[in-house]
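subagent[fold] <- orchestrator: predict structure for attached chain, return tokens only, no commentary.
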Amino acid sequence: MQVLMNGIYNKFTGSTGAGSIYALLGGRVYPTEAPQEAAFPYSVYNLISDVPEYTFNETIENAVIQFNIFDDDKSVTNINTDFTALTTLYDWSTLTITGYTSVYMKRELSFVTREEDVWNYMIQYRLVFQKN
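subagent[fold] -> orchestrator:
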């Protein structure tokens, strides 16, 4: 659903202050897949699931979005800072989604791993939004 992906990206690019996830990642957030030569740190976001729910005369979308933050810094400190900035922006936020009203965005899962000297912080959100 492209309008949802646009809403996520627009929220990210609208948060440009010092200490924001945009500033910490240098603006590097990519839908689905990062370019092979992307500089660290960066984030990728994916639509995992999008299921419509029909209640009487309303259409409600129930979606799951996953963010992955990648960083090659040796210390876990930077990726934890990135995680805090991302969750500060998106936890219980509302998005501007063309043709829909955002109901909520709730974090459901997160964990950090390190493989081949690269940290990967995975954060998953459930979004509920209603067709206008």
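orchestrator: received. Logging for downstream: The chain has a mean pLDDT of 93. The chain is about 25% helix and 45% strand.
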